[in-house]
């Protein structure tokens, strides 16, 4: 296959076929050639099908360069010409411009797009990761001594905060995506940070060009990653079977796994099971580092009665089970405002929705110690709900007044104590996003 040959209609039909399983799909388009090619291919594919999915385009303006807004607007013009609705999302909390900036920008990018997708009923997000990205990721993780999961590199499908991620272009080299744009005469932007050697991925990209001279081409590296993903899939099935038999995940956003089963199962399965539970309960986007999981497991084996923390989670043993619940940090948990009829993603763990008949907007923030005390005073604390779990649940407030503690299926009553008009009419629901568990 010519490495610079444009992607044909027949190839696009095959590559984009997984998108047809969703009623609505958002395309992540930055303005670079990779994502613009994805947008062009997807628009043409969808138009030729004449049926679902309904496509929309999201561009995240990281607001780190003067040209970033102009590039986002350019994407909007191209999307409009293709007949696709376009939304610009802006990242405002940058932090220091250091070597970790790209990783933080990536997390912020996915958080913003996932929140938008939840708010607009979009179940899937499509990115333009390609074969060169796959090779760079493999080599970066090889350098860090990653295990099977890390060396499997970028999967064709994943999830972020309950939104399905699809990456249909992983087998295509970047040169073919550029050629596709050039054939259509479409403009694209070049991000200067892609040449900034302060960032690890840039340095690795430069190294892959040298390695290719010795036969270690992106195609060869991506082939190894693909074969490792096959082995990973088999182990993931075993880990899922383990969780189905020995773990429970509550609608209240915590999990319990049998300690005896943990101590007797193969270590690789235990590590995978803990990784899935921690990812779901903690709401973190990125997988937990294998090295940190190994340290955690060693600590649990050494002293099962000592509480541990990892990836926004606390882990404590009680009555033969290892409880995993969201950590309540000093900085607290997020806060948002919901208008009647609105829904939003809270803490990357819960989709919170306020009923359209609600008379006023509500503030959603963690129940915390203050709210927990209020529930106790009203004798409305669910007896089966651990105290440390309850503190980290989303609760509805108006000022300092607790209106309710929503759960899956509708709001929870505050008991028989006198309530205000707003408390009587509260209609708020929170759905725990279980991640991949």
Description:
It is a single chain. The protein is of the alpha+beta class. It has 3 domains: 216 residues, HUPs (Rossmann fold, 3-Layer(aba) Sandwich); 77 residues; 97 residues, no CATH class. Helices cover 41% and strands 20% of the residues. The strands form 4 sheets. A 6-stranded mixed beta sheet has the order 3-2-1-4-6-5. Strand 1, helix 2 and strand 2 form a beta-alpha-beta unit. Helix 5 crosses helix 8, helix 9 crosses helix 11 and helix 11 packs across helix 12. It is globular, with a radius of gyration of 23 Å. The two termini are 39 Å apart. The relative contact order is 0.09. About 4% of the residues have low confidence.
Q: Strand count, sense and closure of the main sheet?
A: 6 strands, mixed
Q: Specify the helix fraction band.
A: 40-55%
CATH class group of the largest domain: Alpha Beta
Distance separating the two termini = 39 Å
Average pLDDT reading? 87
Assess the beta-strand content as a share of residues. 15-25%
Which architecture of the largest domain per CATH? 3-Layer(aba) Sandwich
CATH third-level topology of the largest domain: Rossmann fold
Spatial strand sequence of the major β-sheet: 3-2-1-4-6-5
Number of helices: 15
The CATH superfamily title of the largest domain? HUPs
How many runs of DSSP E, i.e. beta strands?
19
Shape: globular
Poorly predicted regions: 408-425
Task: Report the structural category.
Answer: alpha+beta
Determine Rg (CA atoms, Å).
23 Å
Domain count: the total is 3
